[in-house]
Specification:
The chain is of the alpha+beta class. The protein has 25 helices and 20 strands. A hairpin with a 2-residue loop joins β15 and β16. α9 runs antiparallel to α10 and α21 runs parallel beside α24.
Length: about 800
């Protein structure tokens, strides 16, 4: 504020000067400066139900966005000395407070040196477009707002801004003792700040603030903006999203690579007799590479290129480097498989004809495999430890992002080690049973080669990704629900003035309200030994817990009083007496400690006492916690006038409507679906590729008396060990991952700062897991039915 008079041209000029002081990143995202001059608050003379405040505003942009609906514009260029200042007010202001065109208002300044002022209302106006973002920070110009005045005994007042023209502003500003505040607002253009530029804008904001404060030649100015807090909140959300999505996408890439490796391995098994024959007839390794590598490349490379092109054409967003890596890594892994196939035949297949079994139960892992398995487990443990040490600074580090994959692979190694022993242990038990289907099915499952066991690894990784995403998504949803309960305190909270039983009855009579609990709020309370102010909240805790059991942090067996940590330190040990003017002293002894209570600022000093302890204190504001469905904020506000109404559904909607939340949730949902689809694809690949050989075996068993129904059961028993071991182990690991990766999976930026601790899958996720298992079982039965062959068409004379 300053008594200096700035003309319109000077206001515009200073705005452009400040714009030039902006770093380039800020200039790129902000619009043209919007200049205005607003007087200090003035108290309107008169007797009213609550005090009334008046501001004078010279706002060029506002004049251009309103239309006069009654009277005339408030032009003061021909105003004579001694005449009342001409002003315009909004129609809403006039209707609510009882003013009309021609009324005169006397207003006195808040400071003794500021002289009284008389104004005349010459016109009423309405906004041309009430939804224009221009009005968001200028609500007082459109309608009266509630403001708190007074420090020791705060009161609510109705405040409004009256529009004046440049001549009226010049006359008022020249009056000794009357100050104006000059503002140059730079609106941020919608959609101008992207994820990539948010950090740069946040960093340049401090440089702009220093440049404005260090500028000389005019009265001191400061940068006042909420952009810092919003950018900090966005940075936290972006950091969490990048970390969590990197974990999910890394798992999906690993599952996709596993499916492709499985397909390439199955192709290699089909080509192995051909390559062995070629090698036995004198073909070189280079000649073997042509059919092996050529067939794989012919299938993988065009498919990868077409898939990437389809993703680009679908308009999923700008090109990402990570997408190229996600495509290149699986393709490279698939192309490496033929090389292994060719090198395996370098001995001309001699070892292949030795009759040595290489199934899971009979094979003996080599020392090399033992060392590789130990290195993989050690790498997974090291990555998990590094992730927890680095915490939220881990970001998208490749090693950190690979933690789910490494842990899943390490667990798969352990499961593969234990899998043969489980099958061996089941054999003798099933041999003693009357039916032969279970024994034959387990025996056939034991004859699977390492390539046949690869679906176990793929299914385990897919189940890990699905379990992790389902658990985190449920935790996010539950955390936002808990945060909305903690912030509002019930389905609705009314910030009301002094209330009696009649006002409480009006609240309970509002349609949709099923219950209401009143709390009396007394500020500026002190103790006899400490003058630090505290807030006393008088409420019936038992009734409140019954009304809103979803509010976290409210102890069940609470003592007579609860104090915040700051209030407990202020009162000190032992008993304390709380007092202030207008209330009877309250004796508090050994209160319990509570971190948060709805309606009180985090970290503030407050004490919750029984309502009967403050029932005799009248004239203090109240809070009313209400429960019910489809609550109407306007009806609640009319029943108990005050500062406003807070609805839990509105708070929850504010949290869930954040664009970044939609991105995270969509990724979680898609990750679960894609992981499940890859797992089912792996099962289907194994079933289809081995269907012909299995059909021949079943035909032999059919000749020995196996029925069609037993054939279907045999198909289920064969696939059950892999499904149960892989999906069970992977799902358990997925449920544990949020705890293992706790510092990275920090969802507090999406829950208003409230910690998310409940990591359990939801019922739809469990039903989805059961559905995936049923689909895999149905696929086994369907493939068995599709490749069912009659014994007479398979067996030849002499077959045994």
């Amino acid at each position: 504020g300053d008594q200096r008079v700035l003309a319109r041209d000077a206001l515009v000029s200073h705005g452009l000067t400040y714009q030039q002081l902006m770093p380039s990143s800020l200039r790129a995202v902000t619009g043209q400066p919007e200049a205005s001059a607003t007087s200090d608050r003035m108290y309107i003379d008169g007797r009213f139900s609550r005090p009334r405040l008046l501001y004078l505003g010279w706002d060029v942009g506002a004049w251009e966005r309103v239309r006069v609906v009654a009277g005339n514009p408030s032009y003061s260029f021909d105003l004579k000395p001694g005449e009342d200042l001409r002003v315009m007010v909004s129609r809403t202001f006039a209707d609510r407070l009882g003013y009309k065109v021609g009324d005169r208002i006397a207003a006195a300044g808040g400071a003794p040196a500021e002289p009284a002022l008389r104004v005349q209302i010459t016109g009423l106006y309405e906004p041309v477009n009430a939804a224009d973002p221009y009005w968001a920070p200028r609500a007082r110009i459109l309608h009266p707002v509630r403001e708190t005045v007074g420090d020791r005994d705060p009161l609510e007042a109705d405040a409004g801004t009256a529009l004046i023209d440049g001549a009226a502003y010049a006359m008022a500003a020249r009056t000794p003792g009357r100050d104006f505040t000059f503002s140059w607002r730079f609106p941020v253009r919608p959609g101008a700040i992207g994820a990539s530029g948010a950090r740069e804008v946040a960093g340049d904001m401090d440089a702009f603030r220093s440049a404005v404060q260090g500028r000389t030649g005019m009265f001191p100015c400061a940068v006042v903006t909420a952009l810092d807090d919003r950018l900090d909140a966005f940075a936290g959300q972006l950091r969490t999203a990048e970390s969590v999505l990197a974990l999910v996408l890394g798992g999906l890439v690993a599952v996709a690579a596993g499916v492709l490796l499985l397909a390439a391995g199955l192709l290699g098994e089909r080509l192995r007799p051909v390559l062995w024959t070629m090698r036995a007839r004198g073909a070189s390794l280079r000649q073997l590479a042509v059919p092996a590598c050529g067939l794989t490349a012919l299938a993988a490379v065009p498919s990868a290129a077409l898939g990437y092109a389809a993703g680009r054409l679908l308009g999923a967003g700008p090109p990402q480097t990570s997408s190229i890596y996600a495509v290149a890594v699986p393709v490279a892994a698939v192309l490496a498989v033929p090389v292994v196939m060719v090198l395996r035949e370098r001995d001309a297949g001699v070892g292949s004809s030795s009759g040595r079994r290489d199934d899971l139960v009979s094979a003996r892992p080599s020392r090399r495999r033992f060392v590789l398995d130990a290195l993989l487990i050690a790498l997974a443990v090291i990555a998990a430890v590094l992730l927890r040490q680095r915490g939220e600074r881990a970001g998208t580090d490749p090693l950190i992002a690979a933690v789910p994959v490494l842990l899943g692979a390490a667990l798969a190694v352990l499961v593969l080690r234990a899998y043969p022993y489980l099958l061996r242990a089941a054999g003798p038990f099933l041999r003693r049973r009357r039916g032969a289907v279970a024994f034959i099915g387990i025996a056939r499952a034991s004859r699977q080669t390492l390539v046949g066991a690869l679906p176990l690894v793929v299914l385990l990784l897919a189940a890990t990704v699905a379990g992790f995403t389902a658990t985190v998504e449920t935790g996010l949803r539950t955390g936002q629900e808990r945060a909305s309960w903690a912030e509002v305190g019930a389905d609705g909270r009314i910030e009301a003035g002094p209330m009696d039983e009649a006002a409480l009855a009006r609240v309970r009579a509002v349609p949709g309200v099923t219950g209401a609990v009143r709390a009396r709020v007394i500020t500026e309370v002190t103790t006899e030994s400490n003058t630090a102010p505290m807030t006393v909240v008088g409420v019936d805790l038992a009734a409140y817990r019954d009304l809103a059991p979803g509010v976290p942090g409210i102890p069940g067996g609470a003592p007579a009083a609860l104090a915040s940590p700051l209030a407990a330190r202020t009162m000190g040990p032992g008993a304390a007496t709380l007092s202030r003017a207008g209330m009877d002293p309250i004796r508090v002894q050994s209160p319990g400690v509570i971190e948060h209570f709805p309606g009180q600022s985090p970290g503030s000093a407050f004490i919750v006492v029984p309502y009967k302890a403050v029932a005799g204190a009248t004239g203090f504001p109240s809070q009313v916690f209400v429960s019910g469905d489809d609550l109407d904020a306007r009806k609640l506000s009319a029943a108990a006038p005050g500062r406003g109404v807070h609805l839990r559904q509105d708070v929850l909607r504010t949290m869930t409507d954040v664009p970044m939340v939609s991105v995270v949730r969509d990724t979680f949902r898609d990750g679960s679906l894609i992981g499940g689809a890859f797992g089912l694809l792996a099962v289907l690949l194994v079933l289809v590729v081995g269907a012909r050989a299995r059909g021949r075996t079943v035909a032999h068993l059919r000749a020995l008396g196996l029925s069609r129904r037993q054939s279907r059961r045999l198909a289920l028993v064969e696939i059950a060990p892999v499904l149960l071991c892989a999906v069970g182990a992977g799902w358990v690991l997925g449920l544990m991952l949020p705890e293992i990766t706790g510092p990275v999976v920090d969802l507090r930026p999406y829950t208003g700062g409230h910690a998310v601790t409940a990591h359990v899958p939801s019922l739809p996720a469990l039903l989805g897991l059961l559905g995936a298992l049923l689909l895999a079982a149905a696929a086994a039965v369907a493939v068995d039915r599709a490749f069912d062959a009659r014994p007479g068409t398979v067996l030849r004379t002499g077959d045994s």
